[in-house]
Amino acid sequence: MAALRPPPEDALSWVPFGPSELIAACEDGRVLHTRSDIDCFPESDSLFAWNNVMRLAKTDDHADKHWRLYKSGRPIDLNMMRVLDRSGRLRTDRFESLIEQGASVMINRLELKVPEIGRLSRQIEAWTGAYVRVVAIGSPGRAPCMPLHYDHVDVIAIQMDGDKTWSFYGRPVEGSGIARRVEDRPQVKTDEIALQKGDCLFVPAGLHHQCQPSDGSLHLALNLKWPTVMDFAPDLVKQRPNDFSLLEPIRTYRSPERVDCLLDQLSEFDELRLRQDEIKEFLQGWPGHCAERWRVSNLGEFY
User: Are 154 and 265 part of one and the same domain?
Assistant: First the structure.
């Protein structure tokens, strides 16, 4: 199996799928799953575990921006449940009580909170050209965290603890690179994959899914956000509101040949034909462009 080779100075950045595999999976609308040894991550037990969740809960000054709690697929209002204090930090007594009752927790922007994970996200950005943000999702009980949904980012999920079964439905929605309301969600299950500790899963953007955790399930989601035509030619998208091809992720994977192929496809639109050099420069600088766009004191939301 082809693999992304990590820089020799940091063996932490290990991803068991190569770019060609990921691109093919996206084009086919299918997931990739590999059973891997958790020891591939040096000092994996200290990379991120349940004790890290609880430690962050007591120290994170930006909990109101990045922490989400869910129960049986429904979000919990942190203010209504008085989980946040006046400064926006978590009240650990209330937080721990909800966790004991089986609430799931989602922590966004984990790359800003754990240095090793931050290094991992930056290296994956360097390899792929995508804008990478990291989310942790922990479920102490068996209730699903999220309802049936799709993500507008490609996701590399690493199961850090416990088990979790992912159910997939249908094929990726059209225009999967943009978050938008889809009227008819697929109801027929097309695939089911059970992850154990150490497993890695790749889910292309737009594919509906729902997860059933075991007791004590914890996984990291490395979210790869790609540009769409909306990002460099919003007027064209407005002129063609029903052309969902303009909202598809433009996955470059740092490949000059692939970029040239994508530019040829975009040249079908007369409005973009004379902007090839500008678009190429935009695609090459995408992660940096995103970092500037979404940075709010370096702690802005991802999406």
Answer: no
Residues near 292 by Cβ (< 8 Å), separated by ≥ 6? none
- If asked whether residues 142 and 274 sit together in one domain, one would say no
**Residue 138 included in any domain:** yes
What are 87-129's pLDDT values in tens digits?
Answer: 999 999 999 999 999 999 999 999 999 988 888 888 899 889 9
Domain contains 167: yes
For residue range 239-289, list pLDDT tens digits in order: 999 999 999 999 999 999 999 999 999 988 888 887 889 999 999 999 988
DSSP structural state of residue 246: G
| 299 inside domain | no
- Alpha-carbon distance of 259 to 66, in angstroms, equals 34
126, amino acid identity = A
Indicate whether 174 belongs to any domain: yes
Which helix (H) or strand (E) covers residue 201, if one does?
strand 200-203
Total number of domains in the chain: 2
pTM: 0.90
Tokens of residue 50, six digits: 């349940």
- The structure tokens listed for 116 are 């090793």
